[in-house]
Design brief:
Elements (H helix, E strand, L loop, with lengths): L9 H4 L4 E6 L4 E7 L6 E8 L7 H4 L4 H21 L3 E6 L1 H5 L3 H9 L5 E3 L2 H15 L5 E6 L4 E7 L2 E8 L6 H4 L4 H14 L9 E5 L1 H13 L11 E3 H11 L13 H21 L3 E4 L4 H8 L3 H4 L3 H12 L4 H11 L9 H14 L7 H11 L7 H14 L15 H21 L3 H5 L1 E6 L2 E7 L8 H14 L2 E7 L3
Parallel strand pairs: 1-4, 4-5, 6-9, 9-11, 13-14
Antiparallel strand pairs: 1-2, 2-3, 6-7, 7-8, 10-11, 12-13
Helix pairs in contact: 6-12, 8-11, 9-11, 10-11, 14-16, 15-16, 15-19, 16-17, 16-18, 16-19, 17-18, 18-19, 19-21
C-alpha cells in the first residue's frame, strides 16, 4: 500500500519504546515514547526541577545541591528505563552543563550511572529544537525560538532544513537579572545581543516558539481570548496581537491565571513574555506559532530514516488511534474512496481519510457517548500535523456522521464556514456508506455513490439490492439536499 493511506509498514513501526533524557539548565526530564515513529506517543513523562543553571551566573559552576538533585533524578530515570524495556535511549545535556567549569565532572558522574550523555553545543541545541518544529509542522518556513532555562536559541528553517542557528544567554534563569534595570535596559540588551550575533532573518515569516515558559504564555493568551481549544500546540496569533498581550503579561499583574499553569511557570511568565515581546519587535514576524514539539522530538525525528521522516504524522497518528479501537485503516481507506467521488477533495485527501478513520472509530464506542467523545478526540487530542481548521472539519465530519448538521458557534472561529459545510457533506456521505454497506468489502465493491448529470446516484449491483431499505432513502435525501441535488437509486446487473 502507498504512504497516502497511512498504513504501509505501520505495525512494524510501532514496536519499540524510545526514551530521551534532557539534562537542561532548569529541569532534568525523561520522556518515554511508543507508537508510530512519525507520530510518537508519550507513555511516561517525568521531570525534576534541579535548576542546574541557577547559580551559574554568579559562580561559573554547577552547585553541589543542583548536581545532587539532578543525579538523584537521573539514577531513578536509569532504573525506570531498565524496568520499562526501552530499546533506544538518547541522553543530552544543554546550556548549563555546557557553560559550567565543572560541567565535565558532572557528566562523568552521569556516565557512572550507566547513561551516555552527549553535550550539545549551542548550534546543536538550536538545530535539535528546529528539527522538532520541522517534524511537527511539515513544510514550515520561518524562525524557531527555543527558550530554555539557560539560553535562547534561534534558527531559521525552510524546506531545506535548518540554517543560521545562534544561541544567546537569555534563559529563564537569567532573565530576572537581565530585567532588573528596567524595560528600556532589557530591550537594549536583547537588541544588542541579536545585532552582535548578526541575526537578520525572519521578517514577515512565522516565528515558531518552543519552551515551557512560552507555553505558559500561550495558555494565558488562550484564556484571555477565550479560545475554544485546550492544546497550546499549533496555537497562533498575529504578531501585533501577541505583542500587545506580552506587554500586558510582562507587568506581572495576571489576575486570572490559567489553572493549567504551574506556580513555577507562572513565576517565569512575565519574563518570558517580556523576551517574546522584544523578539517580535526586533524580528517582525508575520505571526507567532506555539509548538509543543522541540528538542526532544527533534532528536527522535533525527533518528529516523528519510522514508519514515517523509510520512505524514497526522495520518500515522490517527491510523494508530483507529487501530486501537479495532478500525483497520486499510478498511477506512476503502470507505473514504467510496465517498470521495461525490466531492471535490483535491488537496484534502489526507484530511478526508483521517476524518473517515476517526468517525468510524467513534462507532466503536458507547452510543450515548460516541458523538461527544469523538468530538473531543478531534478537537482536543494532540494530532501533530493537523491545524485548527482541520480539527474543526474533522469534528464536523464526526457530527454529521451521527446525523447532526448544525454547526457549533465555536467551530466558526476555527475554520471558514464553507469548509465546515464541506465536512458535513463528508460525514453525511459516510453515514450513507456505513449504513448501506456495513463497510463490508463485498458490499463496497458492488455499490457506488456518484454525481451523474446533476443528480446524486447510488448504484447497487443486483446481489446487493436487498441492502437498500427505507432508512437508506432518508439518508440519501439528507445528503442530496445538503449538496443541493436530487437523488436516484439504480440497480445494475452484476459485473
Amino acid at each position: 500500500m502507498s504512504d497516502m493511506d497511512g498504513t504501509s509498514h505501520f505495525e512494524s513501526q510501532s514496536a519499540e519504546k524510545r526514551a530521551i533524557i534532557d539534562i537542561g539548565s532548569n529541569t532534568v526530564r525523561m520522556v518515554i515514547y511508543n507508537g508510530p515513529p512519525r507520530a510518537p506517543i508519550v507513555v511516561l513523562n517525568e521531570k525534576v526541577n534541579a535548576r542546574l543553571g541557577k547559580e551559574l551566573g554568579q559562580t561559573g559552576e554547577l552547585s553541589e545541591k543542583a548536581m545532587n538533585a539532578a543525579l538523584a533524578a537521573l539514577r531513578r530515570f536509569a532504573a525506570m528505563i531498565a524496568l520499562s524495556g526501552v530499546a533506544q535511549v538518547e541522553c543530552v545535556a544543554t546550556a548549563a552543563t555546557r557553560d559550567a567549569r565543572n560541567g565535565a565532572e558532572f557528566l562523568a558522574e552521569v556516565r557512572a550511572l550507566g547513561l551516555e550523555p552527549r553535550l550539545l553545543s549551542g548550534e546543536d541545541e538550536a538545530a535539535a529544537s528546529a528539527t522538532g518544529v520541522i517534524a511537527a509542522f511539515p513544510g514550515a518556513k520561518g524562525t524557531v525560538g527555543d527558550l530554555g532555562g539557560g539560553s535562547l536559541e534561534l534558527v531559521a528553517i525552510d524546506d531545506q532544513g535548518c540554517k543560521g542557528g545562534i544561541t544567546l544567554p537569555y534563559g529563564t534563569l537569567r532573565l530576572p537579572d537581565l530585567r532588573a534595570d528596567g524595560a528600556q535596559a532589557f530591550a537594549q540588551t536583547v537588541r544588542h545581543g541579536l545585532t552582535k550575533a548578526g541575526w537578520t532573518m525572519g521578517k514577515g515569516q512565522p516565528l515558531y516558539i518552543v519552551g515551557g515558559s512560552w507555553r505558559a504564555v500561550a495558555l494565558q493568551a488562550m484564556r484571555t481570548i477565550e479560545w475554544p481549544l485546550d492544546d497550546p500546540h499549533d496555537f497562533e496569533l498575529r504578531a501585533g496581537d501577541i505583542l500587545r498581550m506580552c506587554r500586558q503579561f510582562e507587568k506581572g499583574k495576571i489576575t486570572d491565571p490559567d489553572p493549567r499553569i504551574s506556580s513555577s511557570r507562572l513565576a517565569t511568565l512575565p519574563d518570558a513574555a517580556a523576551l517574546l515581546a522584544e523578539l517580535v519587535e526586533r524580528i517582525a514576524p508575520s505571526k507567532v506559532v506555539f509548538s509543543s514539539w522541540g528538542l526532544r522530538e527533534g532528536l527522535l525525528y533525527a533518528q529516523l530514516d528519510a522514508s519514515t521522516q517523509a510520512r505524514d504524522p497526522m495520518l500515522d497518528g490517527v491510523a494508530d488511534f483507529a487501530r486501537r479501537l479495532l478500525v483497520a485503516p486499510e478498511q477506512a481507506r476503502k470507505v473514504a474512496e467510496w465517498t470521495a467521488p461525490v466531492f471535490a477533495i483535491e488537496g484534502e485527501e489526507k484530511l478526508h481519510f483521517a476524518s473517515t478513520m476517526l468517525a468510524l472509530a467513534a462507532m466503536r464506542t458507547e452510543p450515548n457517548m460516541r458523538t461527544e467523545q469523538a468530538m473531543g478526540w478531534a478537537l482536543r487530542k494532540r494530532w501533530v500535523g493537523l491545524d485548527v481548521r482541520g480539527r474543526a472539519m474533522m469534528a464536523m465530519t464526526v457530527l454529521a456522521n451521527s446525523g447532526t448538521t448544525a454547526i457549533p458557534a465555536e467551530f466558526e472561529r476555527l475554520a471558514p464556514r464553507e469548509d465546515l459545510h464541506a465536512a458535513i457533506g463528508w460525514g453525511l456521505a459516510l453515514r450513507v456508506c456505513r449504513r448501506l454497506t456495513a463497510c463490508a468489502d463485498e458490499a463496497l465493491s458492488q455499490t457506488s455513490l456518484r454525481r451523474e448529470g446533476g443528480r446524486l446516484v447510488v448504484t447497487l449491483e443486483e446481489p446487493m439490492q436487498a441492502l437498500f431499505a427505507n432508512s437508506m432513502a432518508k439518508d440519501m435525501r439528507k445528503l442530496a439536499e445538503w449538496l443541493g441535488l436530487e437523488w436516484d437509486l439504480k440497480i445494475a446487473a452484476a459485473a
